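ok trying again, last paste got cut off:
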Amino acid sequence: MMDLIRRRATIFIEYAFFMMVAGTLRIMPIVAGVWVGTVIARLFCLLSGRSTKYIKSQMQECFGERYTDKEYDRLVGKFYLHFGTLLAEAVRVKILNMDNVDEIVDWGDLKELNDELSAKYNRGVLFATGHIGNWEFTGSAGAMKGILAGSIARPLDNPLIDRKVKEVREYSGQEIWDKEGAILKLIKAIKRRKSVGILIDQDAGEQGLRVPFLGRAASTNTAVSELAIRLGAPIVPSAIVRVGNKPLRFKVVHGEPIFPDNKDNSQEAVYTITEKVNNELSRIISDNPEQWLWIHRRWKTPNPSDRRRYKRYE
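nice, full thing came through this time. structure:
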């Protein structure tokens, strides 16, 4: 009984703190919000064990001698600024509307590419993405633009915060499918020629396939590859990245579309497609290194059965 009371109290305290911070950031001028967000980002990284030293070492493992020691220090500083800007922007997602979405996001050829591929394959597009740039804007802006129908998201541990975040994510019209049980909904959407987004840049545990990511073997979720083969749907690795240091100014970047053979569902085919997706996302991150969420423990799953070595990502 006491454990239940403590759990409920913790949920309410966390929710109250979350709402206070989000509300404070939202009413601040965006520049002040970025400054406060950056302080919060530094504190969060420190308290969660993802210190400056940890972030820097992750970057060095991936990029090797591409940067000098001082350049890595500056890159870590830029990461904190990006993280803080992301927090200040995330509480403002609801400013998006049909009048300003094209001003905030430079879409490039993504809308035309999505429409062309959907018509050609009679399927929606699987947009494979990661925690790059401002992924919270990706779903909302994409839905408002008529590109994305929905995205898969793992429910947050705090149900009250999860409900609030889901409400914000869905206000623009996108559907949010809980990670558990989302596959059937995703399949139906793809068959109806509605495109969906899937984040695939987190460690997939012992069940994941070991595929190079930023030049290092990483346990990778193969759901995108397997679904693409099963449904005959094209994959487009993509992300919304920030333009310069300006808050609320983004552009879409994407790799070459990947076209799986729906007659070949072998493990080799799954590996090849997953490797292509990881390579494209690695390229996007390499071009915008401060805009990836380096605090993820991307390579935490040991891989004793695979002794292959990969070159650092250039």
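cool. Confidence is low (pLDDT under 50) at residues 307-311. The two ends are 55 Å apart (CA to CA).
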